[in-house]
Amino acid sequence: MVRRVFLDHTKLGWTVLMGVLLYGEILVYWRAYSLWPRTEAHEARILLVADPQIQGYRDEPQSVLGMITRWDSDRYLSKTFGWATFAYDMHALAFLGDLIDEVEHCFFTLTGSITDDETYRIYVDRFHGIYPPNSAPVMIYTSGDNDIGGEGGDPVTDEKVARFRQHFPVQPLQNIPGTNINVIAANVLSQKASEFEALPPKKEDEFRILVSHFSLMPTTYSDFSRAVVKAADPDVIFSAHFHYGLKEEYERSSGKSVSNVTRRFTQVGDLPIPLNINTDRNANMIEEIIVPTCSYRMGFKEMALGLVRIRPKTGDLIYHNLWLPSRFANLYLYAVALPVVLILFVIGQRKAKNKPRSRKSSFSADYSKLV
């Protein structure tokens, strides 16, 4: 006799739902984390966050959908940052600009009743909710064109620059405590090259890292770049803006690229990048790393955080891309799984309603009527 197998569609629906959520909200992040490098106790560690660009209110849908897209984007940034702070004890955290999106619309109110400063404060509170101000002993903020203007026809104004610096304090030179490493922030949109002339002379055993939103070597900014590089005398430069990552090598004096091959960073075949900061101080070459965006809303397939590992005693500096999981792939998975789960629930409910009563329960009911 063949035994009939009863399939509980409702339980199956719950199993599929929980499995998809477990995979999309935990396992994909754990898998990315498991591929990140392990560090050593004596190293100084700097986390680089490029172009988080938290989503605004004007360009997103003016409905519940807009609330959901902003919530999901913020949540992704928060979760990936949380995994990074879980993985590493950071000595410094540097934001490479474009912290906020639609800054020009902070002068365009959300409802017509909120002042410009209050609108901007909403962005700031969201940002600090994702990246708490006490996340590392040293917090470094650089502004981008989405923070102070400069994108398209949006002008840079003193008011925007002052407002950014009020909420995201910027210091010209910051030391990583207990090390001989100093970080210098630069911005071609809001600073003049003369501001860097006040920097103290570089010490013999000092390492200097220059961070900027824009690349400091393109010919567009050649005068500013040459002056800043000369005054700051950095050992390496980290920048962002392009949303994809790459490594370039330039002549200090001219800003001319001397890289034989310009290759974008990709997860396939990605290796740690040793940077030549322990070479002759008078060398005319300088390396620049452009860090990929950490936001899936920037339209690029691959996102990453940047990790800088420095061994001050030996002068070794190694850069890693901390590759992040694809969010759109998970959202597509949810879009496919949701109707499947709903169908299973509907089938389960219909079967429960149409399930025949057992003979024992039927007999008991009929007997109770006779009594």
Automatic annotation (TrEMBL):
One of its GO terms (cellular component) is membrane. InterPro entries: Metallo-depent_PP-like (IPR029052), PGAP5/Cdc1/Ted1 (IPR033308). The chain crosses the membrane at residues 12-30, 331-348. It comes from the Eukaryota. GO terms for biological process: GPI anchor biosynthetic process. The keyword Transferase does not apply. This is Calcineurin-like phosphoesterase domain-containing protein. It comes from Tigriopus californicus (Marine copepod).
